[in-house]
Structure formats: structure tokens, C-alpha cells
UniProtKB/TrEMBL annotation:
NCBIfam families registered for this protein in UniProt: cobal_cbiB
GO biological process terms held by the UniProt record: cobalamin biosynthetic process
Keyword Transmembrane found: yes
Gene: cobD
Domain of life: Bacteria
Membrane topology classification: Multi-pass membrane protein
Cross-referenced PANTHER family: COBALAMIN BIOSYNTHESIS PROTEIN CBIB (PTHR34308:SF1)
Pfam families documented for this protein: CobD_Cbib
Organism: Pontibacterium sinense
InterPro entries: Cobalamin_biosynth_CobD/CbiB (IPR004485)
Function comment: Converts cobyric acid to cobinamide by the addition of aminopropanol on the F carboxylic group.
Family assignment from sequence similarity: Belongs to the CobD/CbiB family.
Main location, first listed in the record: membrane
Protein name: Cobalamin biosynthesis protein CobD
Positions of transmembrane segments: 55-72, 79-101, 154-173, 293-314
Length: 315
């Protein structure tokens, strides 16, 4: 039951303290990753480096820290209390539950009050699309999609890998996910160099994303969520965001997707959730329902983990 104790401790710390404002280890890792990229993402001709160099750079950034985590985890296994505390602290640093909810509420509150400028600014902090001219519906759609998608990345994937491989697993996941966020762009600078970071993150998120989609469906409008998941997941270019957002949009019965501006270009994206005739229009209330869906899904995960841990202990 030490695994359960560590997870509960991590969630309690996150609920009470939120994301650390100073001295977050991922900030230091980000600086390390930036330094590695500056050194290795070049060639003599000034062109971006290839996939092989990207694999080497990813390994240089991630593997030593995972091995360190494995060594520490191995040493603490003989000290039950220390193992629980260390696991809880590491998982706490790897998840962003309260941060995600706070970002969602920071958009929904001004949006509900009719303060579009503040809502645009708040949503611009959490999405990569251009929100400077977004109307109320576009703002709400962007924030709702972000809450649903990042529920998988910021919470459920980290818990999944912690359950599967302990401290080394969650360190591997969080560092890989951070590198994808930094290097996983499809532009001239990162298309080849960041290929490994993007593909490894896709691989690590594959099962957790589908478990997240399932938990969204069970925690919301199940029939609609499953129907949207089956029909819409394959239409999205991201193999993991598609199932999560489609199921999440269906679970809260909100129509998402559609046109959005990224880096100055208008992109027509596939629909998410129920069609416009049967689904609700994105709104401040929809953002709040997405936040509540994440919370209910998290409660479901904790319940299942506790039950499974109890069964395994009994066996």
C-alpha cells in the first residue's frame, strides 16, 4: 500500500501547495535541455541536425537522470517511510492538477463576467493558438480543449507511469514530456532533431491517454463520450490528443474543434464532441464542467488504484 500512500501524499501536496513557484526541478531540467539543444542541434553548414543527433541529445538529457532516480529508488526500498515520502514528493513535482484547474478557472471567471480582454490574456497563457481577436466562444473552446487534453499530460500519464515503474517511471515520463514540449515542433529547426522527443512522448502517452479517455467517459455522459471517441479520435493528427479530447468533449456534451489560428495561419480542425445541433456551445460553464470532469476522473483513478492495491495485498 506504499504506492497508494505516495499517490495520496502527492495529490494532497498539490492540492495544498499547488505548483512550486520557485526552485522547480523541471526549470533546471529545461535549462539543461536548452543547453544540449544549442550544442547539438547544428551542423557545419548551419542546418538543423538530423534524427540520429536528436536521439543522442534525448538520451543525454534523460537517461542519466532516470538512472539516478532508479538508484535512489533502489536504495530507499529498504526504508518504507522514506520510500513513501520520496515517492510522494517526486510525483507531486511531476503532476500539475491544481495548476491545470487554476488555469481553467482563470479563463472561465472573467469570461463569465464579460471581461473578454482578461479572458483572452488568460487563455493565451495555456494555448499556442492566436487568441488576440477571439470571441467568447473561441476563448471558451480553446480553454476547454486545453483542460481536457492536459488532464492526460499533467495528471494521469504521470500517475500511470508512477504506478507501473515507480520513481524512475514518472521521472522518465515527465522529462520526456518536457522535451516534447521544447523540441517536438514541426518546423525547420526541430523537424528532424525533435523527432525522437515527439515519438517517445507519443509512445509513453499511448496507454495513459486511452485510459484517460475511458475515465472521462465513465465520469461524464458515457454514451456520447464513447460515440465521439470512436468517430473522431482518428481524425486528429495527434494519436493521443484525439481520443482524450473527443471523449472529454462528449462527456461534457460540448461541441469543440473547428477553425483556429496557429502562428498566423488559419487551420480547419476536425470537430470534437457532439455536433452543433445536439451539443452545447463552448462557454465559461463548459470550462468549469471540463475542470469538474478532470476532478471526477481523478477520483475514479484513485478509487481503482486503492482497490487494485488492496486486492494485490490480499493475494
Amino acid at each position: 500500500m506504499s504506492l497508494v500512500a505516495s499517490i495520496l501524499m502527492a495529490l494532497l501536496l498539490d492540492r495544498l501547495l499547488g505548483e512550486p513557484k520557485r526552485f522547480h526541478p523541471l526549470v533546471g531540467f529545461g535549462r539543461l535541455a536548452s543547453a544540449i539543444e544549442r550544442v547539438w542541434n547544428t551542423t557545419d553548414a548551419g542546418r538543423a541536425a538530423g534524427r540520429g543527433t536528436g536521439v543522442f541529445a534525448w538520451s543525454l538529457a534523460v537517461i542519466p537522470l532516470v538512472l539516478l532516480a532508479y538508484s535512489v529508488n533502489l536504495w530507499t526500498e529498504q526504508y518504507a517511510v522514506i520510500s513513501v515520502i520520496l515517492g510522494g514528493v517526486v510525483l507531486y513535482l511531476a503532476i500539475g492538477w491544481q495548476s491545470l484547474i487554476e488555469h481553467g478557472i482563470a479563463v472561465s471567471n472573467p469570461l463569465a463576467a464579460g471581461d473578454l480582454d482578461s479572458a483572452r490574456h488568460a487563455v493565451g497563457m495555456i494555448v499556442s493558438r492566436d487568441t488576440s481577436q477571439s470571441d467568447e466562444t473561441a476563448i471558451a473552446s480553446a480553454a476547454t480543449e486545453s483542460v481536457l487534453e492536459n488532464g492526460a499530460d499533467a495528471i494521469f500519464s504521470a500517475i500511470f507511469w508512477f504506478c507501473l515503474l515507480g520513481i524512475p517511471g514518472v521521472v522518465l515520463y515527465r522529462l520526456s514530456n518536457t522535451l516534447d514540449a521544447m523540441w517536438g515542433y514541426k518546423n525547420s529547426r526541430f523537424l528532424s532533431f525533435g523527432w525522437a522527443a515527439a515519438r517517445i512522448d507519443d509512445l509513453l502517452n499511448y496507454l495513459p491517454a486511452r485510459l484517460t479517455a475511458l475515465s472521462y467517459a465513465l465520469a461524464g455522459k458515457t454514451r456520447i463520450a464513447v460515440s465521439c471517441w470512436q468517430a473522431q479520435a482518428v481524425t486528429w493528427k495527434s494519436p493521443n490528443a484525439g481520443p482524450v479530447m473527443a471523449a472529454g468533449a462528449g462527456a461534457i456534451n460540448v461541441s469543440l474543434g473547428g477553425a483556429a489560428i496557429y502562428h498566423g495561419e488559419l487551420q480547419q480542425r476536425p470537430p470534437l464532441g457532439p455536433n452543433r445541433d445536439s451539443g452545447e456551445t463552448p462557454s465559461a460553464q463548459g470550462i468549469e464542467r471540463a475542470c469538474m470532469l478532470v476532478n471526477r476522473a481523478l477520483g475514479l483513478w484513485v478509487l481503482v488504484i486503492v482497490i487494485l492495491a488492496g486486492v494485490l495485498a490480499w493475494l
